[in-house]
Amino acid sequence: xxxxxxxxxxxxxGLLCGCLPQKETNQTTTTLAALEIVPHxxxxxxxxxATQTLSLRGTTVDSTQQTSTNxxxxxxxxxxxxxxxxxxxxxxxxxxxxxxxNTGVATVSNGVVTAHGAGYSSISATAGxxxxxxxxxxxxxxxxxxxxSLDPPEYSxxxxxxxxxxxxxxxHAILLLSEASSGYNNTNxxxxxxxxxxxxxxxxxxxxxxxxxxxxxxxxxxxxxxRYKYVVYYQYxxxxxxxxxxxxxxxxxxxxxxxxxxxxxxxxxxxxxGHIDIQFPGIGFVRNITLTGIIAxxxxxxxxxxxxxxxxxxxxxxKGYFMTVGTGAGSYRASxxxxxxxxxxxxADWTAVKQ
Length: 355
Description:
- The chain is mainly β.
- The chain has one helix spanning 2-17, and strands spanning 23-38, 44-47, 51-53, 55-71, 76-91, 97-100, 106-109, 112-115, 119-127, 130-131, 135-140, 148-150, 155-158, 162-169, 174-179, 184-186, 196-202, 207-216, 224-233, 246-252, 255-263, 270-280, 284-295, 300-309, 312-324, 327-337, 344-354.
- The radius of gyration is 28 Å and the shape is flat.
């Protein structure tokens, strides 16, 4: 009987104090935060009666509200926490509303664009309150110069003799690509059914170089459109290339961050080191995230982001390129992980100038 009394007393104490097993409820709300048309060329170049297919990519925000409750006879305690996670995945084209600003030029249905007449039209898509940045469609008739666009950047700095050139050309056109210092001269550049192309030029000589792209009308070669891409090629550890070394100030989402570029102890390599502040949904700013990496041989910036803060493990990357030896641009993506929390994500573009 004594043992039974102790057990009863213990149980009553638990009831009074609300120390029964914890009950948890979770409620998740998913919101479409951003929508993007892919591929997203600078301009989609089309011939009359041609069709091209566009896809969508959506960024969703999952907000999970977790409520834990301890209930007793006389007391009840509760705790509610909210966590946020972002994900970017393909979005069904048939679940979006597609529109064309000029249906006489082009119409669109579930991402399939059909060209009808010469001119320009903006194609856009909307779903769940999010609107994708529009794609400009340029339609040319058979007796005009074909449309042609090159992917950005128009100007860039590289540190090896190789450069990639990509873009979009009107179907049925003949595409020519050349660069004088390397001797590269392709008079029939291949492209896919949507007019997208990508070529690699090898053997550039150091200095300021111009890549010339020309789209010719397959029936009338006198009708042509020409575009240019400019690159400055410096060899590693040359006086000109070394001018990237020093202190840089970057700007992202109206916030500044700092990094330094220096010669590496590894031959033919530059190192990048610094810190960046990133705002994560659900936890706010994480300060002084370590940024460390290298400048790749093609002049691109490739750095990792690492930090431990507030119980979260921060990881990610920062990418970019040099527009000149004194300016740069790119983007970053980072995630924050903590036991019991969904993964939080943050991404943004950045620009930088050398001080």
